[in-house]
Amino acid sequence: MSTVPLLTALHGGPDRPDALRVDGKACGYEELLGAAGAVARRVAGMPAFAVEADASLETVAAVVGGLLAGVPVVPLAPDAGADERAHVLRDSGAELVAVDFAERADVAERTDQAPERPALVLYTSGTTGPPKGVMVSRDAIAADLDALAQAWQWTADDTLVHGLPLFHVHGLVLGVLGALRVGSRLVHTGRPTPAAYAAAGGSLYFGVPTVWHRVARDEAAARALSGARLLVSGSAPLPAPVFTALAGLTGHEPVERYGMTETLITVSARADGPRRPGAVGTPLPGIATRIAESADGIGELQLTGPTLFDGYLGRPEATAASYTEDGWFRTGDIASVEEDGTHRIVGRASTDLIKSGGYRVGAGEVENALLAHPAVREAAVVGAPHTDLGQEIVAYVVADGVSATELTDFVSARLSVHKRPRRVRFLAELPRNAMGKPQKRLLPPM
């Protein structure tokens, strides 16, 4: 266990009175340490504690307080239903703690917590069963943030802007703890609207594809980001048309990266390297990747490295099943690797690798082809059972003024004919989660 504080910017460095601004409320490092110290005093000795992780300084103080005290923090989604909330609290054994940011106490950061006590327990849903608690250590967080700071040339001179939820890796670990480790100023916009991003005046912006799609459709907001240094997209694949639109309007090709709750961020394009639509770059320092059972150049992405989780809370069988016999983590994502080491994520093995008529088709490639049509705003592609083909390619689209036949022909003209959708269904919107990822299991039957 490292003896170096995780939140290095809070210890020994100069105070910044406007170091953090969350949904319009600002504070400095000294204020944050005082509020977090009060939380640390309250939770000391608890096995774990939960916090209502809304976009607020209280949430930041709670998470920092847990890190100061060496007590695992369980962020709760503010919109979690009663059953989900009850499951998380029961499964984690955590007590829900309310935070008053006006309270103050002096507490030093503990760096000697027992290795079996995680820094965070983040709940993530799989395809079946209730959400599982992912145990993330402070050493994994530190290793990931240091690697990303190097990859993105992220320094204390940056102003980081985002409006992402604070109960996920992207918004909380990267978007809050990253700023507190690097020492950059943080502006959390509350809601991630194009207008809020445009007004923030940042040098480094984080967003999910839904956010970047909305920014790209707001020309004035997009052009206001031209003064930034780096735009970063993650949590879901960024459609190629959005990549191209952002580059044209802002002058910046966005950096795409790849990660999971269980692994944190493991692969990324670099601030000083090439960026291509649909490509998530190369492994971060210390990360090794491989493509398993590769066919036609694609297969399951497996990896090892210092950013991996410590297991699923109370589920040793599930933890063991997530690794290969020789110790590589099974991501469940299908990927390909180009000659220069650049990775492309095709999609989830369970939903995005379609086997049709003897061909292996990545859903993401077909989705990007559909999104290239000017009438299409959203697209999700799945494989449906078919007596002759095994699976047929089915597309769900949000579009205006275009027919299914026109879209099928459009894809056929850009991709191999066997990759065209056999059926197209029009929807008013795609079902998505809080991070903007389309939820294909919630799509209506054809």
Question: Can you walk through the features of this model?
Answer:
By secondary structure, the chain is of the alpha/beta class. The chain folds into two domains: 8-345, ANL, N-terminal domain (Rossmann fold); 351-442, GMP Synthetase, Chain A, domain 3, CATH 3.30.300.30. 28% of the residues lie in helices and 27% in strands. It has helices at residues 29-43, 57-69, 82-92, 138-152, 169-182, 194-200, 209-217, 219-224, 240-250, 316-321, 363-371, 404-414; strands at 20-22, 25-27, 49-52, 73-76, 95-96, 120-124, 132-136, 159-162, 185-188, 204-207, 230-233, 255-260, 264-268, 279-283, 288-295, 298-304, 329-337, 343-348, 353-356, 359-362, 376-386, 390-399, 423-426. The strands form five sheets. It has a 13-stranded mixed sheet. It has a three-stranded parallel sheet with strand order 4-3-5, with helices on both faces. Strand 12 and strand 13 form a beta hairpin. Helix 1 crosses helix 2 (57-69) and helix 4 (138-152) crosses helix 5.
* Inertia-based shape: globular
Multimeric state = single chain
CATH architecture of the largest domain: 3-Layer(aba) Sandwich
CATH topology group of the largest domain:
Rossmann fold
Strand order of the largest sheet: 2-1-9-8-10-11-12-13-14-18-17-16-15
Which class best fits the helix and strand makeup? alpha/beta
Low-confidence segments: none
Q: In total, how many beta strands?
A: 23
Which value, in Å, is the CA radius of gyration? Answer: 22 Å
What is the number of helices?
A: 12
In this structure, how is the largest beta sheet organized?
A: 13 strands, mixed
CATH class of the largest domain: Alpha Beta
What is the arithmetic mean of pLDDT?
A: 91
How many structural domains in the coordinates? 2
Could you estimate the helical fraction of the residues in percent? Answer: 25-40%
Organism: Actinacidiphila yanglinensis
Keywords: Ligase
Protein name: Fatty acid CoA ligase FadD36
GO molecular function: medium-chain fatty acid-CoA ligase activity
